[in-house]
Amino acid sequence: MAAALALALVSLALAGPGVGAGLGPELAAGLSCPAAGCTCSEGGTRVSCRAAGLGALPPLYDRLVVLDVSGNNISALPNDALLPAAGLRDLNLSANLLEVVSATSLVSSSVARLWLDRCGLARLPPLSMPRLHHLSVEDNFLSGLSKGSLSECRSLRVLRLSRNKLSEVPTAALATLTRLQALNLAGNLISELTATSLPELPSLHTLQLSPETLVVHRQSVCRLGGEEEGGVGGFRGGCEGEGEAAAVGEGDQVDDARRRSE
Ligand SMILES: *[C@@H]1O[C@H](CO)[C@@H](O)[C@H](O)[C@H]1NC(C)=O
Ligand SMILES: *[C@@H]1O[C@H](CO)[C@@H](O)[C@H](O)[C@H]1NC(C)=O
């Protein structure tokens, strides 16, 4: 009992003036997390509000680094939603039903990893995140990506778009992603990979596609490094042929196309 009281006194002392600077009012008072159902750790830098029944983002503040608000009922993100979280690096918005995402809600100069899986998205909301290197928008209803949708995300290294409704590789949207290393397009409706499907992506080494229905044109395979042993889709035998296509059987492994840097 006495020990518990002593501990309580210590934590009160720690939460005294100064310590809470930059935190939201509730946290600054040392009393609770920003919203009911959330748990906070590491001095309020990590907040998890997973499946907490939230209808909106909890109050954000500048010392927040990791925020998980997945599995809630967040349907709208207002303008400048992330502005108060100037140090936010990881944001998990998965499994919300995002219906209204305003043009400046996903703007952040700090966010490095963003998850928007299972959000019912038919369009990728505009993202302006110069530090973003990991973006996951899996299990949505994207049928395409508009040309400029990722042009403000030039640091992107990993892009996961599996299980959407894409009928072709979103070539124009990918064109600015010169640092992209891994692209997952599996589980879409892409049935053909041609020489022009992929823009020049100098850093790309892993491309995942669903092999069952895919027709790969020999030229594009060669661009991906198919002339080397172990290239894409079991292609063997040189890259001289122009415009030849091969249907890839179910047994073939096209889903991990490795492009080697020479
Ligand atoms: C979301 O709202 C619906 C009804 O409005 C409710 O049934 C459901 O439990 C809510 N989900 C969460 C995760 O709070
Ligand atoms: C994001 O949230 C989803 C749903 O709760 C969860 O499955 C996933 O593991 C989370 N991702 C990370 C990196 O925490």
UniProtKB/TrEMBL annotation:
Residues 1-15 form the signal peptide. SMART domains: LRR_TYP. PROSITE patterns: LRR (PS51450). One of its GO terms (cellular component) is plasma membrane. Keywords: Leucine-rich repeat, Repeat, Signal. It comes from the Eukaryota. This is LRRNT domain-containing protein.
